[in-house]
């Protein structure tokens, strides 16, 4: 019987995993500079958390969640996004009693039953940030700039920041009624999916990519013209702080996010090199989320970035991450005695931080050298009975072909010189 990975999932194999490690390392470093600390939440939660947090009439909850009953007949869902879990943890662990705001970041797998396509999988990986318990518009600008800075660290540029305000619970209901009235008047021009959304979730119509729908949407009432005074002032302040940072942005009054918990600021960072799926990451404020799932009025803002989507963007622009696979030294052994002594040398070199390898298949010298080449070994050395008796061997630079006679007892010191010399 042949087994394959489930549709919409991928094995991430070496050397590709080195790229993931590099991204994660750079993320840890940068987010720490902004005083964001890592949080790790469970991969599954009680289903109601996502129903209440994300919204029961969203595509994610209605169509895309992996939900099942556990052995205690409790409804469990693999997390489709990270924010609801972070807020649940914040409330459950009473972090609101500590100095605020709280700044978290996370990296991990998410799960959505979607149609697999380029950059979109059923198990995918996100890194994200959440800043909780402050409504300061400066924090909105900080979050956006942090995401941009992360992408710039990987070599991405020419990115577009799309910015909008989706209002609050005071002004959005009036806007939704205006939008609903307009959509009903133009219902005949909408796709079937959008027709069904008019009553359930009319804001989602604004996100439709259907050509006929986009024609209708372009003339729809704009939420930016229907904001209350508080929302309008907050939106203007966010723009002012972005101006302070010299961050260019495009006001996009049709921008909505796919989750019901968003309020006020909403944003997306787009990369035109990706084609139709051009959003690299997005986020916004969710000032009502903590109240919805925990009856505590706490503002928050964050973003999530798909690692698969990031790698696609890097590939589209021909950007190679500075990662190297291979070993510093491959020891080719001849005979059992040489293997034992080489095993000792391996251990000593590894303890000093060198990436080293030797043969474990009892192959001939030629096959071992081919293996060293496949492993991208920087140096190779052949150790047999003669080399042991003479306490000397020839170490070879695999790139240049240069060779050097060394004392085996000085191998560690010689490797330190060679690797340092190459690094300079």
Automatic annotation (TrEMBL):
<keyword id="KW-0030">Aminoacyl-tRNA synthetase</keyword>
<dbReference type="Pfam" id="PF13393">
    <property type="entry name" value="tRNA-synt_His"/>
</dbReference>
<dbReference type="InterPro" id="IPR033656">
    <property type="entry name" value="HisRS_anticodon"/>
</dbReference>
<feature type="binding site">
    <location>
        <position position="126"/>
    </location>
    <ligand>
        <name>L-histidine</name>
    </ligand>
</feature>
<dbReference type="InterPro" id="IPR041715">
    <property type="entry name" value="HisRS-like_core"/>
</dbReference>
<keyword id="KW-0963">Cytoplasm</keyword>
<feature type="binding site">
    <location>
        <position position="130"/>
    </location>
    <ligand>
        <name>L-histidine</name>
    </ligand>
</feature>
<keyword id="KW-0436">Ligase</keyword>
<dbReference type="Pfam" id="PF03129">
    <property type="entry name" value="HGTP_anticodon"/>
</dbReference>
<keyword id="KW-0067">ATP-binding</keyword>
<dbReference type="GO" id="GO:0016740">
    <property type="term" value="F:transferase activity"/>
</dbReference>
<keyword id="KW-0547">Nucleotide-binding</keyword>
<keyword id="KW-0648">Protein biosynthesis</keyword>
<dbReference type="InterPro" id="IPR006195">
    <property type="entry name" value="aa-tRNA-synth_II"/>
</dbReference>
<dbReference type="InterPro" id="IPR045864">
    <property type="entry name" value="aa-tRNA-synth_II/BPL/LPL"/>
</dbReference>
<dbReference type="InterPro" id="IPR004154">
    <property type="entry name" value="Anticodon-bd"/>
</dbReference>
<protein>
    <recommendedName>
        <fullName>Histidine--tRNA ligase</fullName>
        <ecNumber>6.1.1.21</ecNumber>
    </recommendedName>
</protein>
<dbReference type="InterPro" id="IPR015807">
    <property type="entry name" value="His-tRNA-ligase"/>
</dbReference>
<dbReference type="GO" id="GO:0005737">
    <property type="term" value="C:cytoplasm"/>
</dbReference>
<dbReference type="InterPro" id="IPR036621">
    <property type="entry name" value="Anticodon-bd_dom_sf"/>
</dbReference>
<feature type="binding site">
    <location>
        <position position="112"/>
    </location>
    <ligand>
        <name>L-histidine</name>
    </ligand>
</feature>
<comment type="subunit">
    <text>Homodimer.</text>
</comment>
<dbReference type="GO" id="GO:0140096">
    <property type="term" value="F:catalytic activity, acting on a protein"/>
</dbReference>
<feature type="binding site">
    <location>
        <begin position="261"/>
        <end position="262"/>
    </location>
    <ligand>
        <name>L-histidine</name>
    </ligand>
</feature>
<dbReference type="GO" id="GO:0006427">
    <property type="term" value="P:histidyl-tRNA aminoacylation"/>
</dbReference>
<comment type="similarity">
    <text>Belongs to the class-II aminoacyl-tRNA synthetase family.</text>
</comment>
<feature type="binding site">
    <location>
        <begin position="81"/>
        <end position="83"/>
    </location>
    <ligand>
        <name>L-histidine</name>
    </ligand>
</feature>
<dbReference type="GO" id="GO:0004821">
    <property type="term" value="F:histidine-tRNA ligase activity"/>
</dbReference>
<feature type="binding site">
    <location>
        <position position="257"/>
    </location>
    <ligand>
        <name>L-histidine</name>
    </ligand>
</feature>
<dbReference type="GO" id="GO:0005524">
    <property type="term" value="F:ATP binding"/>
</dbReference>
<dbReference type="InterPro" id="IPR004516">
    <property type="entry name" value="HisRS/HisZ"/>
</dbReference>
<feature type="domain" description="Aminoacyl-transfer RNA synthetases class-II family profile">
    <location>
        <begin position="23"/>
        <end position="322"/>
    </location>
</feature>
């Amino acid at each position: 019987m042949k087994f394959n990975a489930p549709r919409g999932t991928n094995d991430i194999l070496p050397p590709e995993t080195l790229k993931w490690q590099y991204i994660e390392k750079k993320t840890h470093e940068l987010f720490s500079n902004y005083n964001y600390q890592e949080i790790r939440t469970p991969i599954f939660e009680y289903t109601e958390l996502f129903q209440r947090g994300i919204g029961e009439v969203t595509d994610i909850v209605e169509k895309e969640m992996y939900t099942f009953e556990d052995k205690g007949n409790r409804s469990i869902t693999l997390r489709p996004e990270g924010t609801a879990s972070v807020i649940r943890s914040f409330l459950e662990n009473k972090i609101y009693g500590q100095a605020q705001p709280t700044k978290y970041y996370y990296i991990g797998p998410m799960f959505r039953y979607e149609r697999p396509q380029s950059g979109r999988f059923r198990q995918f990986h996100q890194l994200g940030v959440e800043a909780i318990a402050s409504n300061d518009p400066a924090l909105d600008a900080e979050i956006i700039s942090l995401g941009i800075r992360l992408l710039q660290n990987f070599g991405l540029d020419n990115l577009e920041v799309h910015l909008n305000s989706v209002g609050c619970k005071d002004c959005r209901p009036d806007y939704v009624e205006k939008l609903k009235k307009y959509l009903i008047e133009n219902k005949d021009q909408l796709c079937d999916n959008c027709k069904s959304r008019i009553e359930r979730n009319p804001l989602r119509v604004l996100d439709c990519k259907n050509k006929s729908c986009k024609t209708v949407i372009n003339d729809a009432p704009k939420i930016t013209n229907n904001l209350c005074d508080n929302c309008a002032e907050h939106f203007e302040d966010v723009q002012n702080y972005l101006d302070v940072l010299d961050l260019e942005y495009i006001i996009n009054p049709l921008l909505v996010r796919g989750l019901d918990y968003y309020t006020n600021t909403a944003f997306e960072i787009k990369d035109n090199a990706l084609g139709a799926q051009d959003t690299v990451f997005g986020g916004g404020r969710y000032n009502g989320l903590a109240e919805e799932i925990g009856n505590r009025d706490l503002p928050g803002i964050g973003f999530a970035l798909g690692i698969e989507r990031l790698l696609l963007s890097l590939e589209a622009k021909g950007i190679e991450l500075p990662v190297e696979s291979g070993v510093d030294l491959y020891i080719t052994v001849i005979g059992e005695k040489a293997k034992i002594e080489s095993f000792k040398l391996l251990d000593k070199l590894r303890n000093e931080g060198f990436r080293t390898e030797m043969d474990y298949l009892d192959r001939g010298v030629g096959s071992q050298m081919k293996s060293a080449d496949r492993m991208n070994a920087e140096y190779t050395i052949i150790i047999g009975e003669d080399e042991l008796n003479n306490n000397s061997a020839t170490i070879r630079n695999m790139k240049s072909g240069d060779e050097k006679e060394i004392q085996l007892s000085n191998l560690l010191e010689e490797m330190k010189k060679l690797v340092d010399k190459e690094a300079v």
